[in-house]
Amino acid sequence: MVRFLHNLDRDKISHFIYSIFKIQEFFTNIQNVNHPDVSNCVYAMWHAHQCCVHGFPNREKVNVMISRSRDGEIIAKVCEKWGFKVVRGSKGKKGAAEASLHMINELKHGNSGAIMIDGPSGPVKVVKDGVVKIAKLSGAPIVPVYWYSENPTFLKFPTWDSFRLPFLATNLINLYGEPIYVDPNNTDEQDEQVRLRVEKSLEELEKQAPQKYKEVFRFGIWTRKK
Fold first, then answer.
1. Is the model's pLDDT at 69 over the cut of 90?
2. Where are the alpha helices (DSSP H) in the chain?
3. How many domains does the chain have?
4. Residues 67, 23: Cα–Cα separation, whole Å
5. Cross-strand bridge partners of residue 63
6. Which of 36, 71, 107, 119 stands 20 to 30 A from 89 (CA)?
7. Residues 127, 117: contact at Cβ < 8 Å?
8. Contact status, residue 5 vs residue 147, Cβ threshold 8 Å
9. How far is CA 217 from CA 29, 57, 171, 173, 213, in A?
10. What is the pTM of this model?
11. Distance of CA 168 to CAs 23, 80, 104, 114, 163, Å?
């Protein structure tokens, strides 16, 4: 009975969050900037920018990796309602490996993935090596993504990652970096260089974002996302 109530709570909470996001969708305008011409990839973003997945094209082919926490269960249900696939391992020590293998299999079959690369608990803006291993074993490139807006309605929350979320009318850009391929024959040292390259790419996107935002919204015109 307790388990049933907990599951019911998660269902209710996820439905409530999804309903809020559906209302917010009407007020949110996300423009993709420099999206690469690749058949599939591993989108890599900071944990704070996880909601940028809403702007991805072909979301039905995007697998979002989500932790096996209670909060993760709620997020997973919301992502599924949005039309994404969800990748999650079992609870315990083997869960992360299971999730990675699932993601690699999806990538090999031509689908894409989305990974919060400093999640689920930090340290903030430090790329973990899982994304490099997944790209290396799947052959799919890593595509860094940075979410940005100058609107005061792009809220920053007092969480460990400074989580970002639009509230009411908000113009946003998803700014994409160049695809980063990982040679399957790389040594551990070379893999570490790739990891640092992903970090560097996201740092560069952060610097470029204000100017790119101005270029996209230079006339200050707000158009609802289709």
1. no
2. 2-27, 70-82, 95-108, 130-138, 188-216
3. 1
4. 26
5. 85, 113
6. 36
7. yes
8. no
9. 11, 20, 8, 9, 6
10. 0.90
11. 9, 23, 37, 25, 16
User: Helix (H, G, I), strand (E, B), or coil: what is residue 110?
Assistant: coil
Q: What is the Cα–Cα distance from 31 to 34, expressed in whole angstroms?
A: 10
Tokens of 219: 């006339």
Residue 221 lies in a domain: no
143 token code pair: 């595509």
Question: What's the one-letter identity of residue 111?
Answer: N
From CA 48, how far away is CA 144, in angstroms rounded? 14
b/e map of 42-56 (b: 16 or more CB within 10 Å)? bbbbbbbbbbbbbbb
Q: Which of 140, 117, 139 is nearest to 199 (CA)?
A: 117
DSSP single-letter state for residue 58: S
Query: Tell me, what's the pLDDT at 206?
Result: 98
Task: Look at residue 223 and tell me if it is in a domain.
Answer: no
Q: Would you say residue 161 lies in a domain?
A: yes
How far is 67 from 186, CA to CA, in rounded Å?
Answer: 28
**pLDDT digit string (tens) for 143-201?**
999 999 999 999 999 999 999 999 999 999 999 999 999 999 999 999 999 999 999 99
| 226 belongs to a structural domain | no
The domain of 11 spans 2-216
Rama region for 132: left / alpha / beta (φ>0; ψ in -120 to 50; rest): alpha
Identity of residue 134: I
Provide the CB-side half-sphere exposure for 134 (13 A, CA): 31
